[in-house]
Amino acid sequence: MTITYSCIANGRAVLAELALTGGSYQEAAATVLKLVLLRAEPKTIIHMGSFVYHTLFIDGITYLCASDNTLDTITPSAFLKNVSNFLYYFKDFFSY
User: Fold this and answer.
1) Contacts for 92 with CB less than 8 Å, ≥ 6 apart
2) Would you say the pTM of this structure is higher than 0.85?
């Protein structure tokens, strides 16, 4: 299982992203972010094309990653939780 794309978004505005391989992740991420905002659920898993998009929605911020394996949901969920925890614990360093 490989996480090939990840982003952090506020609403539909992507604040940071990283793609480890080529692909049209931005288009798919925009669609996934729109669906996440409509659902407003804390966790979402969306199958799109050959990737599975996992999201974590906390306080208006969406943490999103794409993986290539439909069977493993634990690894992407743990990754997103770790990213959100990192930003929470170090939020004072990122504010002005």
Assistant:
1) none
2) yes
CA-to-CA distance for 79 and 7, rounded, in angstroms? Answer: 12
Could you give all domains of the chain from N- to C-terminal order, each with its CATH number?
Answer: 3-94 (3.30.450.50)
Helix (H, G, I), strand (E, B), or coil: what is residue 14? strand
Q: Does residue 53 contact residue 64 with C-beta atoms inside 8 Å?
A: yes
Q: Within 13 Å of residue 59, how many CA atoms lie on the same side as its CB? A: 4
**pLDDT tens by residue, 17-45:** 999 887 788 889 999 999 988 888 899 99
Give the 3-state secondary structure of residue 75: helix
